[in-house]
Amino acid sequence: MSRVVKCSRCRRRFRENAADAAQWNVVFKAGRVTGYLCPDCQSDEERLEAQVNEATLDYAHGAILPDGRAWVPFKGEATA
């Protein structure tokens, strides 16, 4: 059974086919997922941080480390 993803602030459910699905943010603390934010609940600073991360990080080559933390290389970095 998969876990239902909900916004950590308003509890709105994430729906993959929704028009705003790409605008949801995953919240990390020390490399671990601690929550999710829907577009309506994100502050301007959180939106900007997400844009900077999208421009500089290569999410397609990220990995989950043995201790459960997420790791994502910078775009252009060599990956092993």
Describe this structure in words.
The chain is of the alpha+beta class and 80 residues long. It folds into 2 domains: 1-41, no CATH class; 43-79, no CATH class. The protein has 1 helix and 4 strands, in the order E-E-H-E-E. It has one helix spanning 44-56; strands at residues 25-29, 32-37, 63-64, 70-71. The chain is globular and about 35 Å long.
* Topology order in helix (H) and strand (E) letters: EEHEE
Assembly of the depicted chains? single chain
Instruction: Give me the Rg, rounded.
Output: 14 Å
Given helix and strand content, the structural type is alpha+beta
The major pleated sheet works out as: 2 strands, antiparallel
E-strand count: 4
Number of helices: 1
- Describe the global form: globular
Residues in helices, as a percent range: 10-25%
- The percent range for strand residues is 15-25%
Strand order of the largest sheet: 1-2
Q: Kindly, what is the distance between the CA atoms of the first and last residues, rounded to a whole number of angstroms?
A: 33 Å
Mean pLDDT: 93
Task: Please give the domain count.
Answer: 2
**Which stretches are poorly predicted, pLDDT < 50 over at least 5 residues?**
none
